[in-house]
Structures
1.
Amino acid sequence: MEAGEIAGLVAAGAFLMLVIVLAVPILRLRHTVDAATRALNDLTDRAGPILGNVNTTVDNVNTALGQVHTTLDGVNLQLARIDTMTGHAQQVTANVANLSTVVTSATANPLVKAAAFTYGLRRAAAKRRAADDEAEVRATIKAERKARRRGAAR
């Protein structure tokens, strides 16, 4: 055996040792990849029904939102009707206020005149009574003076 052959055998032995040393981690890596593949398959099997349930839930939510939208459209329609009724009530209120102003102005002027006339009558009657009372008092005083003069002249 020559030195080249021995070197070849040593190199082959070293290569064999390298293959054996690398085979163990590669086998372990294979087990890890297999476990990861099983976990992914298991996750896929479990995620399928969950995603189906999510799709059903989203469809139900979309249906509910459609119903809410329809309801809101109905509410908006009713609010528009109420708005119209409120506008009509506002017009009626304005008309009643205008009518009240007209009636007040139509009745207030004669009432003011009647009140002023009544006040004038009361005042004139009071002055007349005061004048009558004053005339009576003057006549009484004059009569007393005359009576005193007659009594003093005798």
2.
Amino acid sequence: MPRPAAAYAALLLRVTLGLMFLAHLYWKLEILPGGVHTWWSGLLANGYPRLVPWYSISAESAGALLLIPGVYTRWVSLYTLPLMMGASHFWLVRRGFYFTAAGAELPLVWSVMLLLQAMLGDGAFAVGPHLFTVRRQHGRTI
């Protein structure tokens, strides 16, 4: 029986979001002059609590590592959503709405995409949460 188109839409969305998170981690680690330290210091200099950079890195890592294979897709999408909403606020206040001025347009769309992913679920070809569960068969752990 063929999979419904929504399953493939969820797959495409899941992989796209995961790759975007991966690209942002790569930017912080390899491209940004001064690396993560510069980014981290910038958040703290703008008055964000010390918890925010830790959460941001953990959310981006979860998005990059778990969304692409489809592990806990709904939960990861919801976990990363506050990050994107915070980024939207950060850029909206500083640069306005439009992406051409490095504004909030992209993080707002990214937030909507995460919400849609949470609503759609894993989609096709997802590893799913069973990757981290122990199964029992005939009284023994496999």
3.
Amino acid sequence: MSIGHVLFSIQGRINRKTYWLAILPLAVSYAVTDVMTESADELIVGLAHIIMVILIWPSLAVQTKRWHDRDKSGWWNLISLIPIIGSIWAFIELGFLQGTSARNSYGLPPGARPAYNYGARINDVEDGYIAGPLGESGPVTSGGSFSNSWRNR
């Protein structure tokens, strides 16, 4: 999964490692911009506020994908609005609890590959498949057999 997908898309799932690798730089960015708001220069304070607003989307996207890994809707981000308990709940559930190990409502687990779809092969020059000599897989018309046509030989 690309960095852009992790930070800007709310689709899919991410595991705890990816969550921490994304959320820690975001937290540092928030801390730096918070320090910038203490400046006497109005331009720096204004820039800090703009940066904070821009950081909202990547934070929500990362957390939403982590909620998806737990098989919960991104609306669970709203639990952080409950004073004290909500933030603790989100911190524990997103940062420390394992996601579902199999396919859930939001797709396959991070890093999993879908099962290969075995289907009959046909002569197709574009995908590089051309039936071989007699006895090998290929269309019956070129000497192959239906029973071996699913193999990539």
4.
Amino acid sequence: MTQLSDSRLACLLRLEDAAAELRDQISQFTMVWPGPAAAQEPIYGRERSVRRRLEMVEQLSKALRVLNKHGQFYRRAEAQALYAEGLTMAELASVFQVSRQRIATLLREPAEASALP
């Protein structure tokens, strides 16, 4: 049980880091968002702005992927912990709003995979 608790804590800490990165990306994105005056500029004058915005979208997408990955790791570790505490696959499926087959898959995956970086 301690290994599951450690996995869940590690996942939560990684989620916290990923959420902070996402907050930073959103903050940067909103600071450079073009205002109404930028909409009146000629298109060729916005090329640099568009390039920077595309870079920021990619950074934001990357932060979201990391957040999702660690969220999945936590979800797996939590499902395994709850199952070990006596919840049935049907109960877990209801709580997680997935099929029992998906819960069975989560439970089969090794717990230590949840703690991977």
